[in-house]
Protein: Protoheme IX farnesyltransferase
Amino acid sequence: MIVSQDTTHKNGLAEGIGTVAAERDSIRFRMADYANLLKPRVMALVVFTALVGMMLAPVQVDPLKALIAIVCIAVGAGASGAINMWYDRDIDIAMERTKKRPIPAGKIEPDKALTFGVILAVASVAVMYMFVETRAAGLLAFTIFYYIFVYTIWLKRRTPQNIVIGGAAGAFPPMIGWVAATGEFTFASGILFAIIFLWTPPHTWALALFRRGDYEKVGVPMMPVVVGARKTKIQILLYTLLLTPVTLIPTLIGLSGIFYALAALALGTCLIRHAVCLLRDTDERRARGMFFFTILYLFLIFAALLLDKTIYFPLDRLIG
Structure:
């Protein structure tokens, strides 16, 4: 009888521990699902470009204020991603690239995703307004609005120029960072915007080339679906040729030095080479390679701006 009670006690304890562990795992997985709703990979690039925009500004920024601004920009970007996933859930479930996202995979209910996104959007703008800078808060609110209503709801399913016009939303973060630091919209911050704006079509159309079947299936008029692969590749090359000289403007206006100029020139040459090879080659792997290189390209362009500002440019001035 004593042995039986002891065994029952141990079994009950084991079940209790198992239940607690299962609940803990469930909470962890739910948190991971909500994190994925924010499009963390996109958010990482947004945060980095915003940080560079803030660091390039010709003022000293209070570290706490800078941290709050960057968190607000990250949360605002994540909120946009969550609401975008809520709206696009009908096509996400049919596309190979997106069918494992939290909503189509059944991990998060659509209304919860929408509520989550709206709360984060409002909170990010409100905190930016109260603790950082009024104009930066206004620009952040406009960016969220633009991505959701102009790009996601209005343009994405209606025109092959969706990413050209709608891509402006992704180009605002460095400008928000600059305005958060200075309180002003300047030509220099506009150049940072222009770099990402011109980068977006080659980046997105490269993806659309090797994911063309997905977009055809759901009726999204991405450029390769509407005009075909060759014309899309020509437009990728044209945007790339336009982008390269624009990336040199920061040096011309004194925002950066020779190190950045050389880096931008080298990266631009590599990007043009990718675009030319893409135009000549029908192999799908070329489009995939172009897509991944564009991600690296943008990171390195902004990393070069940051390095030039913090290390090389001050050294140039000291030597001069």
Notes: The first helix runs from residue 2 to 37. Residues 186-320 form one domain.
